[in-house]
Amino acid sequence: MIYDTIDNFAQYHCIHKHFIDVSRFLESTPGPERSDGKYEINDQGAYVIIETYETKDVSDCFIECHRKYIDVQVLIEGIEHVGVCHRSTCAAFPYDEEKDFQRLTGDADLLALGAGSFMIFYPEDAHMPKVRYREASRKVKKAVFKIPVQI
Q: How open is the CA angle 118-40-72, to the nearest 5 degrees?
């Protein structure tokens, strides 16, 4: 897992060739002006889902992981907690290959993800997004980039 501010994202371009496409997409249209939806960011299988939602109580959220995609989660507006842990410390439900999704149970540490920050989750990084920050539920806008693990 990587946790940083978007101002430093270019430092991570060397990790995966599609990370440059993430930067290009973020620079093309400011996040607050981009409508919710799914957008292709290149012709090699990378895409982004922009969504606006209300954060939830931790008891209403769940831990997840993916096998085929790396998640680059960029918070555009608002603040939320994101639970993080290593996949190996969790009990797993069956993997859905079509959706590239596996639900997990276990203990996760909560980190605050604020506007202008991002987290990168690799297949071994379990994560629990959409958790409310402190007491109040908040509206957030997030870009979740799905980057193929295989180049």
A: 15
Nearest to 58 by CA among 143, 140, 134: 134
Res 52: pLDDT: 97
Question: 148: number of CA atoms within 13 Å, CB side?
Answer: 10
Task: State which residues of the chain have pLDDT below 70.
Answer: none
Nearest to 5 by CA among 99, 130, 139, 114: 114
The β-bridge partners of 119 are 3, 73
Question: For the domain 2-148, what is the CATH code?
Answer: 2.60.120.370
DSSP conformation class of 101: B
pLDDT (0 to 100) of residue 31: 77
Domain ranges in the chain are 2-148
